[in-house]
Amino acid sequence: MSDRKAELERKKQRLEQMRKERQEKERARSTRQTDEAPKPAQSQDLRAETDELLKDLGIPPSGPKSSSPSPTHSNKSASDTEAKQVIVTTSRKPKVKLSVTKVSETSIPPKENVSYSKETQTAILEPLDKEGKNPWDYYVLTYDDPMGHTDEDGETDSMAAQPQTPTSSKMPHVEMVAPKQTQEDLDKKEEKPVPELSEEEKLHILNSEDFQTFFSKSARLVERMLTEEVDIYTDYSGGDNEGKDDESAGDRLKLNRIFYDERWSKHRTNTSLDWSKQHPELLLASYNTNEDSPHDPDGVALIWNMKFKKQTPEYVFHCQSAIMSSCFAEFHPNLIVGGTYSGQIVLWDNRVNKRTPIQRTPLSAAAHTHPVYCVNVVGTQNAHNLISVSTDGKMCSWSLDMLAQPQDSMELHFKQSKSVAVTCFSFLSGDVNNFVVGSEECTVYTACRHGRSVDLGRGESKAGISEGFEGHHGPITGIDCHKVPGQIDFSPYFLTSSFDWTIKLWSIKEQKFLHSFEDNSDYIYDVKWSPTHPALFASADGNGKLDLWNLNNDTEVPTTSITIDNNACLNHVRWHETGSHIAAGDDIGRIHLYDVAETVAAPKGNEWSKFAKTLQEMKQQATEREEEAMSLSTMTSPLR
């Protein structure tokens, strides 16, 4: 209770103190106003002094004299009024504050009206005076004409000789007048200083997605410009080629360039090649694991540009597993498909600023669980699928829009035996149902997706493996169906390569091979038909030798060959769609691009008929070979 009383007492004291302070402030304010007020006594003194001075000078004091009985009071009122007028007059004239103002001037030249006069010189026909003279003859010289020159009418021809003013002198002289520039215009032209950025702001800009996309595109453009070589001395008249016909005729296979990147290609083996359909200058190459760099991604896919002489790839993609096969999505120019050693199918998109896959298939029993050596996109623009086959014989059909689960899948078995270990496959030309596969069991098989196969002309069969073709003595490494369009259909024919050092030519209508090419002395890793020449194909072997075979010229030895350096072996070959270039990948990460001479790559008009004749001869030789084998087996069979 005592605390409360003490608190109330303190508050009362505080209020009393505030009241006193307020009273002191009011007293000080009233004192200040009293001091500042005008003093009438002082004004009266000034008036009196002024009157005294005027009296001394002999001037009577000014102002009317009042007849009021109280003059003192009247004088006092007048002096008060004059003092008030002085105060009011003084208060009405405050100090003027001056400041400098910038005036912007704009000079607009007046519109100039250009005018000119147009004159035409004509003969002035005026009447002559009585003496036969013209009024203007006074201003010209005259002379006697003894010949008496007259016109047809007998009148003297006279021309007015009045002075002429040149037309150009009457034309105004117009000059271009530049508009007057003000100081503000000049200030705008001055470059503004670049603001300094902090380290945090710099890192934020460098890590932004927009900057990385811009820098990636700009770097590619600058690199193309720096590496492009143009021969300014090219003679299009053909003068430079005189005397060189003999040299160019023998240069059938010429090295154009080598694609190799020290960061991504070193110590990696090339596993697949593919050319883009939409952008023919782009080449896709996949690589497996770099054992010398365990911290790098296991699988790498690089896109190289044949058009520009740059040393780095256009795009770099990678994933966590080694890439065993890859291809461009034929009907999607920005998508790249890869088959991995783990069994996953991965999908990259070059529109996205990331190197890792944007989609991938699950690692489950519904999809692949073994290495995928075969991927391909088949179909049309509006109806197409991604087909993949793994080494356990499982074939899956996918939609590129959804890789969560396959649309269809089946196991490839031959006559209810174990699954076929597929190493390569190829679809027949213009067919999305029938295809051929090569296996690790040294056998080639024909198969179909939907149960209508073309197997030896025996009609329909169920989906899966239809027939087997035996002839190789080693695993099949490469297979390719004939796809060159022309006068004659050669789509039933296909080539295979194997570890048995041979290449064999087959027909799906014949169970025996038609011909065996045995010129190589090492494993043959790949074989591909030319896309333009019906009788031309290429092969690559373990000695690093690239062979081009023209079956219309010779079936025993290749038409031309070339061997790469560094004792590397060639793993894959891929023709460019024009047939004038061929790419070959080796086991040390290099991609060799060769130019094929036109004499080799370009077919003549009779190549199709010649190749049909060559195939007929091969079939006849195969029949004779089979008869000889049967006769030998009969002779060597034991007597009963």
Automatic annotation (TrEMBL):
The keyword Cytoplasm applies. GO terms for biological process: transport along microtubule. Residues 1-120, 146-173, 621-640 are annotated as: Disordered. GO terms for molecular function: dynein heavy chain binding; dynein light chain binding. Residues 1-38, 46-55 have a biased composition (Basic and acidic residues). Residues 64-78 have a biased composition (Low complexity). Residues 159-170, 631-640 have a biased composition (Polar residues). Pfam families: Dynein_IC2, WD40. It is found in: Cytoplasm, Cytoskeleton. Keywords: Cytoplasm, Cytoskeleton, Repeat, WD repeat. InterPro entries: DYNC1I1/DYNC1I2, Dynein_IC, WD40/YVTN_repeat-like_dom_sf, WD40_repeat_dom_sf, WD40_rpt. GO terms for cellular component: cytoplasmic dynein complex. Its main location: cytoplasm. WD repeats lie at residues 517-559. Belongs to the dynein intermediate chain family. This is DYNC1I.
